[in-house]
Specification:
Shape: globular
CATH topology of the largest domain: Nucleotidyltransferase, domain 5
Number of strands: 6
Structural class: alpha/beta
Number of helices: 16
Order of helices and strands: HHHHHHHEHHHHEEEHEEHHHH
Strand content: 5-15%
Distance between the termini: 75 Å
Helix content: 40-55%
Number of domains: 3
Length: about 450
């Protein structure tokens, strides 16, 4: 049901002090709360609630504020809800008038809120962070005309995939599903399966490859026998076939795939995971999804981010990345700076410069902007170390797209908070110095000439 706005009467709250009277107005979070357009969230997200069904939802500003705080401090849903109770500045950011002593929501409500707003709603959160950056002075509108685009890998929260691990895990999931539906198998291999998987890892460590391959074939045989036994027992039962469809399809996919097969299955709980190689010396393969990051060339402010399932060629993704940036910033892009992986991009509306390009680089300012292309690499590093881009815990392809946008919004908010912490205290000190100077001048005017000389 649509969230309702609570109206606090002054009679009930007569003996409570408001947060605005308790907090320091120079604090960065206090100022950030006034920079974000919260009314736009209530206008857009309120349409995604049912009008006359269920209990009233939680306030939209509370949900958006908690999501922002989670991304700023790289916390889980449970951690951000627990720390919200302890911090009055967090409560003020989320729209509270008085200090609360109880948990605002169940942590699972954040997951349902992300599913409700979807990818388009998360784009709205990123756009709001960009607008707040303009209002705070952390980024200027003219910076949106020149951007830098690059791709990276958003790793999924999966273990490193091996054949033995996947085969044994698929068998265990099928056996557990049979027990849930009271289906008796001829053999479950509950003892022999883990033993064979244990031997595979030991033989591989000892470089005894023939013995390792023998145990792998044994694991494949165990899984094949379980699959065929289940097929016989659920044949003709439509309801059971529906329950077993997903697990059986993944098991058959595991049995059919080979070393050089395309579209291999790397995780059972996240079948959308892809294997990507970015040429890194320390990490040859990464398992997740390719993502595109767009930042301003001058102020390092992120103005776009999207997941790219299917591992497309970088040059084919440039037009979509620039279109998203135009949509979020409402600015026409004049120059885009990319690396050599974007050759053959086909972009016509924006002038694109490749790293290392010499032809057409005529001015000193253009050479400086092209040299700043590599500044996006530490931005991606901060997204992974300080944010949640390095390990995505959200489920499915929709979770991949949502996590990228939220990580970008959190990065922008961290930049804004840093700007507020560094900029506004200096302004406040200058203002205080002016006030003190005026006060001393007024006192000097009231003194006699002799006293002023002394």
């Amino acid at each position: 049901m649509t969230p309702k706005k609570t109206e606090d009467t002054p009679e009930i709250d007569l003996f409570r002090n408001e947060l605005t009277n308790m907090l320091d107005h120079r604090h960065a979070l206090y100022q950030l709360a006034d920079l974000i357009d919260w009314h736009s969230f209530e206008t857009e997200f309120g349409l995604r609630y049912c009008d006359d069904n269920g209990s009233p939802g939680k306030p939209i500003r509370l949900m958006v504020g908690l999501e922002y705080l989670k991304q700023i401090h790289n916390l889980s849903d449970e951690q951000v809800v627990k720390r919200w109770v302890e911090n009055p500045y967090w409560q003020y950011l989320c729209g509270e008038i008085y200090f609360k002593h109880e948990l605002p929501i169940d942590p699972s409500s954040l997951s349902r809120f992300r599913q409700r707003i979807g990818e388009s709603g998360c784009e709205k959160l990123l756009a709001a962070s960009i607008q707040a950056g303009v209002r705070s002075g952390a980024v200027k509108k003219r910076d949106f005309k020149r951007v830098t685009v690059d791709t990276t890998v958003q790793e999924k929260a999966v273990t490193f995939p091996t054949d033995s691990k996947l085969l044994n895990r698929s068998r265990q999931r099928l056996v557990r599903l049979c027990r849930r539906h009271r289906i008796t198998l001829r053999q479950s291999y509950a003892r022999n399966g883990p033993r064979a998987a244990w031997k595979v890892s030991r033989y591989a460590h000892a470089r005894q490859m023939k013995r390792m391959q023998r145990e792998l074939r044994r694991l494949r045989t165990y899984l094949g026998r379980v699959v065929r036994d289940i097929e016989r027992r659920i044949a003709g039962q439509a309801d059971l076939e529906l329950w077993f469809a997903a697990e059986m399809s993944m098991a058959r996919r595991l049995l059919a795939q080979e070393k050089h097969s395309k579209n291999k299955l790397y995780s059972l709980h996240a079948p959308e995971v892809e294997c990507l190689s970015k040429g890194k010396a320390h990490k040859r393969y990464e398992f997740g999804v390719k993502v595109s990051i767009t930042s301003t060339n001058r102020s390092n402010f992120i103005v776009g981010g999207q997941a790219l399932p299917g591992n497309p060629y970088d040059g084919h993704t440039l037009s979509g990345a620039l279109a998203q940036t135009r949509r979020l910033t409402h600015t026409e892009i004049e120059e885009a700076f990319v690396d050599k992986g974007y050759r053959g991009h086909g972009e016509e509306t924006t002038t694109v410069y490749l790293s290392g390009q010499r032809r057409g680089i005529k001015t000193r300012g253009l050479r400086k902007r092209l040299k700043r292309r590599q500044a996006i690499e530490p931005i991606i590093g901060h997204l992974k170390s300080d944010g949640r881009l390095g390990r995505n815990y959200l489920q499915g392809m929709n979770g991949d797209a949502i996590n990228v946008l939220l990580c970008c919004a959190g990065y922008n908010l961290r930049l804004i908070l840093r700007h507020l912490r560094l900029f506004w205290p200096s302004i406040w000190r200058v203002f205080q110095a002016l006030l003190e100077g005026r006060h001393q001048g007024a006192n000097r005017d009231t003194l006699s000439p002799a006293m002023a000389i002394n």
